[in-house]
């Protein structure tokens, strides 16, 4: 768990070149080119079906790409959406954090005392030490997201992929999660966050805008122009506050957009 802190290199945690992928037919993503160094938060923006989850599946090795190159020199962990239907399993928060050892321990070894201690430390780092023995399914949406972050810490993931982690969270829970993501970045991990929230993404370091192909990648202040927002969300979006960056009419936080309703699952 200490590896990221001790990192002295600025080498990218992920580099993607000419990447395309899909599910056997037409590609769902084409021609993605980006790289993410250590210690950054990247908002992955796009409309429903824009390819955000597909990109994450490819980075996690769950989906083979059609073409292109991916370099992932370090471990990559995921914080998936937790669906209500899967919450009946009788596992505790500690059990879930311990799952981070799957694939890290040799096949004959079960997690022992040391692994339990590390998993408890990971739960403490996400502010959930006292919930270690609580059933995962009884936790709030925000607490479940943080347990899954603890699991990624146990995996020693340097790059964390969070799929719409804020959906369904009330604002105190969202704030806790946002601060946790900030701390992860401060210790040299990078976090890619699929989101529909343009304003929130504006507070992160980079944005990757997808609409099957890569529309833009860069600092939000540089790339989130009206054209990019419209190309990312298609014709269904209403851009408000007028003007480009620096033009009259632009507010301090830049352009905003009214996004179409989307299918956020209620995570609470
Ligand atoms: N298992 C699958 N089999 C076939 N096609 C799929 C599968 N999963 C996704 N797709 C298709 O791939 C495209 C990209 O979907 P993806 O789930 O990556 O988008 P997304 O940006 O994550 O969307 P959302 O915001 O709705 O989660 C869509 O056209 C979708 O229908």
UniProtKB/TrEMBL annotation:
Domain ABC transporter: 14-237
Any Pfam family: ABC_tran
SUPFAM superfamilies the UniProt entry points to: P-loop containing nucleoside triphosphate hydrolases (SSF52540)
Assigned keywords, A-Z: ATP-binding, Nucleotide-binding, Transport
Residue span of region Disordered: 242-268
PANTHER family named among the record's database cross-references: IRON TRANSPORT SYSTEM ATP-BINDING PROTEIN HI_0361-RELATED, METAL TRANSPORT SYSTEM ATP-BINDING PROTEIN TM_0124-RELATED
Family stated for the protein in its record: Belongs to the ABC transporter superfamily.
Protein name listed in UniProt: ABC-type Mn/Zn transport systems ATPase component
Organism (species): Rubrobacter radiotolerans (Arthrobacter radiotolerans)
Gene Ontology MF terms: ATP binding; ATP hydrolysis activity
Taxonomic superkingdom: Bacteria
Biased composition (Basic and acidic residues): 244-253
InterPro entries assigned: AAA+_ATPase (IPR003593), ABC_transporter-like_ATP-bd (IPR003439), ABC_transporter-like_CS (IPR017871), Metal_Ion_Import_ABC (IPR050153), P-loop_NTPase (IPR027417)
Keyword Transport attributed: yes
């Amino acid at each position: 768990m200490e590896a990221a802190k001790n990192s002295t290199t600025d080498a990218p945690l992920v580099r993607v070149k000419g990447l395309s992928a899909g599910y056997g037919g037409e590609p769902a993503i084409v021609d993605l080119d980006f790289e993410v160094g250590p210690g950054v938060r990247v908002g992955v923006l796009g409309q429903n079906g824009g390819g955000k989850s597909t990109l994450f599946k490819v980075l996690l090795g769950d989906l083979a790409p059609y073409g292109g190159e991916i370099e992932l020199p370090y471990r990559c962990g995921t914080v998936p959406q937790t669906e209500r239907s899967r919450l009946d399993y009788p596992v505790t928060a500690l059990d879930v954090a311990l799952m981070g050892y799957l694939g890290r321990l040799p096949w004959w070894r079960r997690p022992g005392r040391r692994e339990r201690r590390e998993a408890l430390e990971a739960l403490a780092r996400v502010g959930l030490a006292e919930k270690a023995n609580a059933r995962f399914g009884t936790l709030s949406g925000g607490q479940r997201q943080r347990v899954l972050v603890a699991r990624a810490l146990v995996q020693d993931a340097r790059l964390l992929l969070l799929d719409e982690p804020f959906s369904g969270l009330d604002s105190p829970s969202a704030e806790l999660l946002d601060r946790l993501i900030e701390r992860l970045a401060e210790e040299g991990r990078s976090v890619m966050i699929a989101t529909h929230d343009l304003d929130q993404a504006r507070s992160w370091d980079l944005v990757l805008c997808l609409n099957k192909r890569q529309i833009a990648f860069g600092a939000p202040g540089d790339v989130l122009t009206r054209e990019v927002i419209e190309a990312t969300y298609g014709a269904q979006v209403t851009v408000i506050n007028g003007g480009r960056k620096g033009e009259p009419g632009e507010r301090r936080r830049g352009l905003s957009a009214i996004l179409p309703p989307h299918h956020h699952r209620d995570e609470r």
